[in-house]
Specification:
Number of strands: 10
Structural class: alpha/beta
CATH architecture: 3-Layer(aba) Sandwich
Strand content: 25-35%
Family: Belongs to the ABC transporter superfamily.
Domain ABC transporter: 2-232
Largest sheet: 6 strands, mixed
Order of helices and strands: EEEHEEHEHHHHEHEHEEH
GO molecular function, one term: ATP binding
Distance between the termini: 34 Å
Pfam family, one: ABC_tran
Keywords: Amino-acid transport, ATP-binding, Nucleotide-binding, Transport
CATH superfamily: P-loop containing nucleotide triphosphate hydrolases
Number of helices: 9
Radius of gyration: 17 Å
CATH topology: Rossmann fold
């Protein structure tokens, strides 16, 4: 289980997150929603170790990780696909995928090669293996970015706005792939998403953030989208 206990964070002297509690069970899908600027991306960066915690705890598989560096969290099973995908545009698709392999250092049982399932889930990674990532469409880049995250063989996959700027047909493909990632690989997914149709179709539970705090949570199956829409509009 991934668990946050009263997590707070700041930029300099300006607090951004306030006593956030959140948990994700194995193979569960959770969506984090809220308006732009409420702290969702900062929360993901805090979980992954890219932004420091000022108070509270981050537990991963029962162990405290709030003081651990980002690489240690990755090796423990966290994978992060940032908003904007974070690919190396001048490297090929294949080279971008290979960049995930160093995260397996120290795992004796890990195979030091790109898993075949990555190509099965995202055929674009094989079809365009020799093409520079910067020349791909937004939807193709997103698939490569998720594929690279899977190379690290994670237990928890954190996605920041994976549908942003992507055509509906590719969004459907990504949803199908993420469903397989959960069911076949047993990987839990934490999804920051503005597109509620996608979030509600995929996630089991939701958290709402407002001004750096979690103000509401529940089951997506028991909560109409209309009741949380007010937290998304300006």
């Amino acid at each position: 289980m991934l668990k946050l206990e009263n997590v707070s964070a700041a930029y300099g002297q300006s607090p951004v997150l306030f006593d956030v509690n959140l948990e994700i069970a194995d193979a569960e899908a959770v969506t984090l929603i809220g308006r732009n600027g409420v702290g969702k991306t900062t929360l993901l960066r805090t979980i992954t170790g890219l932004h420091p915690v000022t108070a509270g705890g981050v537990k991963l598989n029962g162990e405290q990780f709030e003081k651990a560096p980002a690489y240690a969290r990755t090796r423990a099973g966290l994978a992060y696909v940032p908003q904007g995908r974070g690919l190396f545009p001048h490297l090929t698709v294949q080279e971008n995928l290979l960049m995930g392999l160093p995260a397996l250092a120290g795992r004796e049982t890990a195979k030091k090669e790109i898993p075949a399932l990555v190509y099965d889930l995202f055929p674009i990674c094989l079809d365009m293996a020799g093409r520079k990532a910067g020349n791909l469409s937004g939807g193709q880049q997103q698939q490569v970015a998720i594929g690279r995250a899977l190379v690290t063989q994670p237990r928890y996959l954190l996605l920041d706005e994976p549908t942003e700027g992507i055509q509906p047909s590719i969004v459907q493909e990504i949803e199908k792939a993420l469903t397989r990632i959960r069911t076949e690989l047993r990987v839990a997914v934490l999804l920051v998403e503005q597109y509620l149709d996608f979030a509600w179709a995929f996630a089991d539970r939701y958290y709402v953030m407002q001004k750096g705090r979690v103000i509401e949570s529940g089951l997506t199956a028991q909560t109409p989208q209309s009741t949380v829409q007010r937290y998304m509009s300006v």
